[in-house]
Amino acid sequence: MKAAVITFPGSNCDYDCFHALRDQVGADVGYVWHREQEVGDVDLVVLPGGFSYGDYLRPGAIARFSPIMESVVAHARRGGAVLGICNGFQILCEVGLLPGALLRNESLRFVSRHVWLRVENARTIYTSRYNKADLLRIHLAHGDGKYHADPETLARLEGDDRIVFRYVNRDGTVGPGSNPNGSAHNIAGIVNEAGNVLGMMPHPERAVDPVLGSEHGLPLFLSLSENLSTAGAA
Amino acid sequence: MSRFVVQVLITPRPGLLDPQGSAIHHALQQLDFPEVSTVRAGKALYLDVEASSPDQAEARVREMSKKLLANPVTEDFQVHVEDADVTTAAGGGK
Amino acid sequence: MSRFVVQVLITPRPGLLDPQGSAIHHALQQLDFPEVSTVRAGKALYLDVEASSPDQAEARVREMSKKLLANPVTEDFQVHVEDADVTTAAGGGK
Amino acid sequence: MSSLLSPVSLPGEPAITSQVVADHGLSPEEYDLVLNILGREPSFTELGIFSAMWSEHCGYKNSKRLLRLLPTRAPWVIQGPGENAGVIDVGEGYALAFKIESHNHPSAVEPYQGAATGVGGILRDIFTMGARPIAVLNSLRFGKLDSPRVRYLFSGVVRGIGDYGNCVGIPNIGGEVHFDEGYEGNPIVNAMCLGLMKTDELMTAEAKGVGNPLMTVGARTGRDGIHGATFASEELSEASQDKRPQVQVGDPFTEKLLLEASLELIRSGHIVGIQDMGAAGLTSSASEMAGRSGNGIVLEADRVPVREEGMTPYEILLSESQERMLVVAEAGKEEEVRKILARWELEAEEVGRVTDDGRFRVTWHGETVADIPATPLTDGCPTYEREGVESEDVQALRATDLTPYAQLSGDLSKTFQALLASPNLASKQWIYQQYDSTVRTSTVVPPGGDAGVVRIRGTRRAVAATTDCNGRYCYLDPGMGARIAVAEAARNLVCTGALPTAVTNNLNFGNPLKPPIYFQLREAVLGMAEACALFETPVTGGNVSLFNERDGKAIYPTPVIGMVGVVDDVDHITGHGFQTPGHQILLLGDNGDELGGSEYLYALHGVVAGAPPQVDLLAERRLQHAVLALVQRRLLASAHDCSEGGLATTLAESAVARGAGEGLGVEITLRDPIPAVPLLFGETQGRVVVSCTTDDLDRVHRLARSHGVPIQELGSVTPRAAGFHITTPDAHISMSLDDLEETHFQSLGRIMDRPLAVNPETSE
Ligand SMILES: Nc1ncnc2c1ncn2[C@@H]1O[C@H](COP(=O)(O)OP(=O)(O)O)[C@@H](O)[C@H]1O
Ligand SMILES: [Mg+2]
Predict the structure, then answer these.
(1) Is this structure's pTM higher than 0.90?
(2) Which residues of B touch C (CB under 8 A)?
(3) Where would you tag: which of A99, A184, D222, D314 has the fewest CB atoms within 10 A of its CB?
C-alpha cells in the first residue's frame, strides 16, 4: 500500500500516522506538505490530527483551503481512500467530503482519555479486519468533537449504515456516560456514500502497539493495507 | 478607494444547542442576575477593508463570510459596514 | 417590566496580540481578498433581559460584563440594547 | 562613527533621577556600580537594560551564592547549569534535555495566558538546545478551592497549560497540584519539559564568530510584558497593579512552526547559536549570548520587526512578546536561513552582528542608545548573602503536641472517606484529562502513575520524569522538606522501573530580604544539595521565583524537584495498581508514628503543625536499590510509593488504579504497635507498597533483605466484590470499591463542576 500523510501547519499527529503505517503494516508512506499541489500516485491519503492553523476561526476551516486539498478532493472523487483522524475529520467536514460539522465538546473542555468504540459497520475498507460489534479501547484527545448534522442527514447516515464507529460504555451499550463529547447518535466515525472516505475523532494510530496500552487500532491499518494493496499500485 | 471597518457577527443557527451560551447563562444566575432568560454566544470579527463604496465593502465581506468566516451548516452571519472611528474603539489596530 | 435583547461585543484589548485575527487575515490573503488589511477577532453575546427601561437593561449588562462576561485584563467590551426582533434574527431564542 | 559618541537618551525619555532608578528596581549601591561600569551616567535605554539584567529573575541576586552549593557533576551530565536547559546522556547515542520554569506572577494576573506562555517558554528552552520536546509536566499550587476566585485561577491555569501543550502536540505525562491557604493569592505554576536528541545534535546559545549576523525569528515584537522580569521580582500589591506589564498572549500555532523551523535550522548547520527571547526579551538573549562567548554584539533596534507603531528602543529591548528567537547565523548563510523559515511561514530579520569588542551595543537609526561591556552586564550583577533566621512561630508550630489529633473518634471508615475526598489526595484526572497525554505515540505511563514514562522509539529504553514537593513540610522544616522532595521524586521513579539520574528544580519562595524567608531558602537549598549528592542525581539547572507574596504574606517555601530517570528496558516498566486477586501485598520500609504536617491533620482538623516526617536518606537509598532490583527482575506486579495520605491512601490508590469499575479488593492486616491514626494516615517516609505472585514471594523477601530493606507482608489482593478492608490492632476500615472509586475519581471534578468561577479582578 502506498500512502501519503498530509502535513498542514499545526498538524501534530502526522508523525504518529506515518509510524503506524510504516512500522506496523509496512506501508510505503511519505509526508506531503500542504503547499504541494499533488498527493501523487497513492492508495491512501491521511489527514492527520493536530491543530492546523491553530484551530483558529474553526477547526479545519482554514486548512481546507490549503493548496493540497484540491488534489485530496480529486483523489477522493476518483474513489481513492481518504482517512481523516481528529483534525483530519474536521477538515473533511469543512471541505464537504463528509456531511455535518464538529462542534465544541458539550463539556466545553478539551477531553483526553480512553473511550470504548463499537464497530457498527465491518464491511468498509477500513474495518474489514474487525467484526461488527467489536469493542475497541482507543484514546481520544480533542476540544471540538461533537458531531452535528441535521435530522435528515443523521437519518441517512443511520439508514445507509455509514456510521462506522459509535461511542459506547465498556459493556458495549450506548447510554449515560458513554458519550465523551455530546456527539449526535454517539457518532465517533462516519464514511461517505461511496465508503472510501472515513472521518473519525478517536486516534487509531495511538493504539497499535502493546507498549502504548492498546492494539485495537491496528486492524484498521491492516484492513487498509489488505484492501488497498490488492487495488494495484505498490 | 477608501477604507472601511466591517463588522461580521457570527451566531449559532437557531435551534442549535449553544452550550457556551447556557454556561454563561447559568453563571449569571449564580451571580444573581435572575433577569437574564437566555444567552447566545457568537463571534464578532472586525475587518479593515479597502473598497470603493460601503456597498462594495459589504458585498465583498459577505463573500468572505460565505466562503470562510461562517460555517453554513451551523452558523448564521450578519455584515455591518461601520465608520472607522467606532471600531478603533472596539479594538481596531495591528 | 419589559424584555430587551442586549448585545455585548467583546474584543481583545488594542495592542494585545490577536493570533486568531492574524490567522484569519492570513487566510483571507491566501483566498485573494487582498483588500483586507487587519482582522480583529472577538465575541458577540446576546442576552434576553427583563428590565424597567433600556437604560436599566444596559446598566445591568455592563455590570455583568465587568463581573463575568469580559476579562478586564485582556478584553474591552461594548453594550448595545437592541430591540427584540433584530436579534432574534441574529440567533436569539433557545 | 556615531557609535563612538557616548549613548544618549532620546527625546521624550525621562531624565535619570533617583526616583527613576528606584522604579527600575535598582538600589543606590547597585546604581553606583552601574556608574562605575559605564564610567558615566546611563542613557534611559541602558538603565532599562541594567534593571532587567540585574533583576532577581535574570541576575539571581539573592540566590546565586546558595545555588553554588548544589552538586552539578556526574559522568552522564553533558550540560550542567548555565545553558537554556540541562542535558544528560541516556544511552544508545541519545541525550535528554530537561528543565523546569516558573510563571507564577503572570499566572496570578491572567491565569490562562500566564500558564500558557509558561509552557511556551519552557518548550523553547528545550528545542533551542537542539532537542525535540517529548513530554511536559506541571507543578501547581493554589489556595483552597472553596473560593470562586481560586477556582477561577485553577481552571484558567489548567486550560492554559492544556490548550498550549495540546496545540503544539507535546504529551503531558504528569505533575502535581496542592491546595492550601498557604498559596492564597499567590498561585504557583511551574512547567517542566523533556526533550530528546542525538548526543551530537547539541546546540548552545553562544554568539560565536565575529561578523556573524544576528537574526530575530518568529513573532513580531509588541509592547507585551515590558519589565516582566523586574515585575516577576517584586511582591504583588495594589501598587504593583498599575506597574503591571501588558499581558503576554501566547500563540501555540506559531510556537509549533518555530519548533519545527528551529530544529531544521540547527540540523542545517547554517546557524551557530540560537536562544529564546524569554524574560527581558531581546536584552537578555542578546547580552547573554555575547557574555557566554566573550564576544560583543551590536543591535540595530530599529530593524526589529514590530507589531505596534511608535515603539522606542527601550520598549523593543525589554518587550517580552512570545514566540520569538534570536539566531546567530553563519555569515553568508542568511538566505538559506530565510528559506528554511519561509517554508514554515515565519519571518526572519537581520538585526545586528557579533563583534570583537566585548560590548553590548544598541543603535537606533544610526545613533548609539546603549554601549555596555557585556560581561559586567551579564555576570556583574551583585549577589547577596542575606541574613536568615527561623521564625519563632514556625518553631512553636513544630513543637505542637499532636496526641489529641491521634485519638480515634467515630467511624474510621467515614473518616478515611473524608480524607480521600480532599482535593490534595483525590485523583487529578479532572486536570490531566484536559491534557493530551498520548500524542507522539510514545507514552508508556501517562499521568496517574508514580511517574510519567516515555519510550525512546527504536530502542528498548525509556525515560521517566516526576515533580514533587510538599510545601507544608518545607514550611515546618525547610531542610527536611527539601530532602523529602528529592527522596519522594526518586521513589516515584524507581517504582516505575527507572534509575533516578538527574534533577532540575524550581525554588518558589517569598521575599528573601526577610530573614525568615532567607532562612527557608538557605535550608531548602542545603537539604536539596545533601539529598541530590547522596542519590547521585546532580542538579543540571532550574529556576528561581522569589517575592511570591501578596500584601506581605508569603507562600509556603516550595522547592519543586523535577527528577528524570532512565529505564533500560520497557519490559521493566511497572504500574502502581494491583493486578490480580490472589497476589500478595507487601510493604518495603518501616511504618512510623509520625503525624506532623500530614494531609490528615490539614484536611480533617485544619491544622498545619508538628514536625514533618524525618527522612533517613541512607535508608531511602537502600530502598531505591531494592525496588529497582525487584522491578528489573520482573518480580513485582505493582509498586507504589507511600506519600501524602499515608499507608491507607496508598493502598486505596493501588486498589482503584485500573480505573472506575475495574478496581480490586484488598484484605490487609497491620500488626505494628502504633496507634491507628498515625499508622494508617501518617506520612512516614521510605515506604513502598508492592504486590507479587505467591510463587515470587520468597525471592522478593530474599532480595529485599539482601539490600538491607525491612519487608513485611500486609495481606492480599481480593476480588472486587470482597471490598477494601484494613485491620489494625485497635481499628478497622471497610469500604466498597464503588464508594472508594467514586470518592477517588469524582471528588475534584465535583468541586470544579460547580459552574461559578469569578474573575479575580472583579470578584467581591
Ligand atoms: N497538575 C498535574 N498535571 C498532570 N498530572 C498531574 C497533575 N497533578 C497530579 N498529577 C498526576 O496525578 C498523580 C498523583 O499525583 P501525586 O499525588 O503527586 O503522586 P505522587 O504522590 O505519587 O507524587 C501523578 O501521576 C501525577 O503525575
Ligand atoms: Mg507527589
Answers:
(1) yes
(2) 3, 9-14, 21, 24, 27-28, 31, 33, 35-51, 60, 63-64, 67-69, 76, 78, 88-94
(3) A184
**Checking DSSP bridges between strand D77-79 and strand D86-91, what pairing results, if any?**
antiparallel
- Evaluate whether D644 touches D376 at the Cβ level (below 8 Å): no
Q: Cell numbers of D717, please?
A: 489482593
The single-letter DSSP state of residue D686 is: S
Taking a C-beta distance cutoff of 8 angstroms, is the pair D172, D137 a contact?
A: yes
CB C17 to CB D321 under 8 A? yes
Q: Which residue of C has its CA nearest to D107?
A: C73
C-alpha cell at D678: 498515625
d(CA D698, CA D85): 44
Shortest Cα–Cα distance, B40 to chain C (Å): 5
Do A81 and A229 meet the contact criterion of CB atoms below 8 Å apart? no
Ligand 1 centre and the CA of C93: distance in Å? 43
A149/D55: higher pLDDT = A149
Helical residues (DSSP H) of D535-645, grouped into ranges: 599-605, 617-632
The count of other CB atoms within 10 Å of the CB of residue B59 is 12
Instruction: Give me D222's grid cell.
Output: 509588541
In Å, how far is D555's CA from the nearest CA of chain B?
A: 30
**How many angstroms separate the CA atoms of D278 and D258, rounded?**
14
Closest partner residue to D441 among A55, A109, A205, by Cβ? A205
Contact B44 C93 (CB under 8 A): no
Closest by CA to D636, choosing from D721, D680, D699, is: D699
Residue with cell 528524570: D564
A119-123, long-range: CB < 8 A, 24+ apart? A119/A164, A119/A165, A120/A161, A120/A163, A120/A164, A120/A165, A120/A166, A121/A161, A121/A162, A121/A163, A121/A164, A121/A191, A123/A161
Report pLDDT digits (tens) over D500-522: 999 999 999 999 999 999 999 99
The verdict on ipTM greater than 0.90 is yes
Cα B53 to Cα A77, B48, C35, D265: the distances in Å are 41, 13, 13, 47
